[in-house]
Specification:
The protein is built from eight helices and eight strands; from the N terminus they run H-E-E-H-H-E-E-E-E-E-H-E-H-H-H-H. A two-stranded antiparallel sheet has the order 1-2. It has a two-stranded antiparallel sheet with strand order 3-6. Strands 4-5 form a two-stranded antiparallel ribbon. Helix 3 packs antiparallel against helix 8 and helix 5 (153-168) packs antiparallel against helix 7. By secondary structure, the chain is an alpha+beta fold. 40% of the residues lie in helices and 11% in strands. This is Protein kinase domain-containing protein. One of its GO terms (molecular function) is protein kinase activity. InterPro entries: Kinase-like_dom_sf, Prot_kinase_dom, Ser-Thr/Tyr_kinase_cat_dom, Ser/Thr_kinase_AS, Ser_Thr_protein_kinase.
Length: 237
């Protein structure tokens, strides 16, 4: 629900317009808008995902998830992001909290991209605007203050952190203060610690995704292909 502020309302309708144009099995479906909520607030009506966010699910499951499910969920998220980037939409707030899941079929869990509230439509090659997102998932170029023009590769950086969340079930940098996190990300000396038992393909894709230089990060098309190969090696349909 959104309390009514004029600029917020304009943003809200813009978001509703974007959402209504999206149709992909790995992006949460948008059904419409409720205009007369409590105190005149507005709300979007979207598809219900039975297990809530991936973050909630990881918390309930003692933060561990087997390799097969992990690859499937990451693959779904990558497919959804590949579609959004194909539509020139940059999410800006990709994290496990904004990935929604249905885990009822243990053979084939489903993951969808949710919460496009901060998303922006990319004009030409760069996305203009101020800093937005959630600190541990924010790419160095968003935090450095050098430029307010960033590319869709900020979502790829966030995806690297999402892969780490899926791997460990932990919150990134949970024992650090904001200023330390910002400094560490900006000078590329800080990334989450990768456990020794992490499989090499996962590690390589994760590290590539959170590379300091945007140009060194893979596209979501490449990420999808690499995750597909991992899934094929495990006979995942």
């Amino acid at each position: 629900w959104l309390p009514v502020y004029t600029s917020k309302i304009a943003d809200f309708w813009k978001e509703a317009q974007i959402l209504s144009s999206l149709h992909h099995p790995n992006v949460v479906s948008f059904y419409g808008v409720v205009r007369d909520g409590p105190d005149g607030s507005l709300a979007t009506v979207t598809e219900f995902m039975v297990n809530g966010s991936l973050k909630q699910f990881l918390r309930k499951k003692d933060r561990t998830i087997d390799r097969r499910k992990r690859v499937i969920l990451a693959m779904d998220a990558a497919f959804g992001m590949e579609y959004l980037h194909g539509k020139n939409i940059v999410h800006f707030d990709l994290k496990c909290e904004n990935l929604l899941v249905n885990m009822r079929d243990p053979q084939r869990p489903i993951c969808k991209i949710g919460d496009l509230g901060l998303s922006k439509v990319k004009q030409h090659t760069l996305v203009s605007g101020g800093v937005r997102g959630t600190l541990p998932w924010m790419a160095p170029e968003l935090l450095s203050g050098k430029s307010d023009m960033v590319s869709e590769k900020i979502d790829v950086y966030s995806f690297g952190i999402v892969m780490w969340e899926l791997l460990t079930g932990d919150d990134p940098y949970s024992d650090m203060r904001a200023a330390e996190i910002i400094g560490g990300i900006v000078n590329n000396s800080l990334r989450p610690q990768i456990p020794s038992w992490c499989d090499p393909e996962w590690k390589s894709l994760m590290e590539g995704s959170w590379a300091g230089e945007p140009a060194q990060r893979p596209s979501f098309t490449e990420i999808s292909q690499r995750l597909r190969k991992m899934a094929a090696a495990m006979n995942v349909k």
